[in-house]
Write a structure and sequence with these properties.
Layout (H helix, E strand, L loop, with lengths): L2 H25 L2 H19 L2 H7 L4 H34 L2 H6 L7 H27 L9 H28 L3 H7 L2 H4 L18 H5 L3 H13 L6 H25 L4
Length: 264
Amino acid sequence: MSAPQTFSLALRDSSTMVRRNLLHARRYPSLTLNLLLTPVMLLLLFVYVFGDVMSAGLGGGGRSAYVAYLVPGLLLMTVGSTAIGTAVSVSMDMTEGIVARFRTMAIHRGSVLVGHVVGSVLKAVLSVVVVGAVAVAIGFRSTDATALEWLAAFGLLVLFATALTWIAVGMGLGAPNAEAASNNATPLILLPLLSSAFVPVDGMPGWFRPVAEYQPFTPAIETLRGLLLGSGIGHNGWLAVAWCVALVVLGYVWSTASFARDPK
């Protein structure tokens, strides 16, 4: 079979797997909704309960200033929440036997993973839109960002979602069951809590600051915050992209190696 034919078949099979993944999410929306509820509840909690107090620590500006500070971090937390659902979905496919059946069929082997990754990224983008709509409804505005900065912000969200999704796929493939997969992926939603999502890194205790600084979420949050608010991003942009590329490579190698092993 020629290379163009192989590519065409791989594209066709991958498209089928993406549709399967999206249909599965539509038929069983409870997992997605439960994971989406966490960033929405945190957004409402921190704005309406802690907003005035937290804004004082940022130099004033009231609740609206804290909304502007908070939203970028919660958008990336939403991406992490969606990735947890991916780990669970992959684990269910592996343990319930559907992947074993796919292995016996004349389909491109990598299309199974591609379907999960592309489907998860699409769900992450949709979830970000939902959380972003809630943020706008409670007062978030991005009046200083240019069209180019909006485009860069969208690109960062997609790249970050792709990176976390590949890591989540690896976690799902390595888990013995769906519950273990969910537990393995929990850091994807805990790390934003230990970043600059809620308070500036400079205001953290000295012993804790390295935990917030040297992780993928903080530079990504600072970059997204700068893009959405039209402020400077400094070196955080390059750090965020570097983290994303490193996680994509790690997750891809981990996932493909795990998937290539014959089931025991």
